[in-house]
Amino acid sequence: MNLFSLFAHASPLISGAPAPQITAKNEDGQNVSFGDVYAKGITLVYFYPKAETPGCTKEACSLRDAYADLHGKGLQILGVSRDTPEAQKKFQINQKLPFTLIADTDGKVAEAFHVPMIPVIGVSMRQSFIIKDGKIAWTSLSAQTGGAAQEVQNALDTVQLQQQ
Fold first, then answer.
1. How far apart are CA 113 and CA 97, in angstroms?
2. Does the N-terminal or the C-terminal CB of the chain have fewer CB atoms within 10 Å?
3. 26 or 163, which is more confident?
4. Buried-exposed string 85-123: b where 16+ CB fall within 10 A, e elsewhere
């Protein structure tokens, strides 16, 4: 059985499911404990196929451009792809991204979140999750590119209303 067939049959994480507690390297090669990040507040974990590609750049820049508003509402952002830490760092610098990028080179983060791989090219599909209080609060199984920030803002508004 290959890795893709494992992902292809995984059920997506749904609202209310425990958020994966995993550790992975960031763009600087340092370990990031997702549980430690969740403990600091509402967190967006978004998966994208490949740094510096057109759709992934649109998605990242949409979130970058709305970062002040999103972060001002307490949202933390972790972007995840199968790229190396060096490629993630270059992407972060080139696009002036103010949030952490995770180098999921072995696919373990995607596997923990049940994010499938795109066959043949071996990259994670574009999906997004908002985590609140250690649980999945929102999922997009076909996340937006240029409209990523608006999609996340709408979801964040819903998640924050639920806590009131």
1. 23
2. C
3. 26
4. bebbbebbeebebebbbbbbbebebbbbbbbbbeeeeeb
Task: Give the catalytic positions in this structure.
Answer: 56
One DSSP character per residue, 13-74 reads: P-TTSBPP--EEEETTS-EEEHHHHHHTS-EEEEE-S-TTSHHHHHHHHHHHHTHHHHHHTT
Q: What is the pTM of this model?
A: 0.90
Beta carbons of 91 and 83 less than 8 angstroms apart: yes
DSSP state of 149: H
Q: pLDDT per residue over 76-131, tens digit each?
A: 999 999 999 999 999 999 999 999 999 999 999 999 999 998 887 889 999 999 99
Up-side HSE of residue 14: CA atoms within 13 Å toward CB? 2
Report DSSP letters for 151-162, one per residue.
Answer: HHHHHHHHHHHH
- What's the one-letter identity of residue 112? A
- The pLDDT score that the predictor gives to residue 161 is 57
Which residue reads 């250690």 in tokens? 134
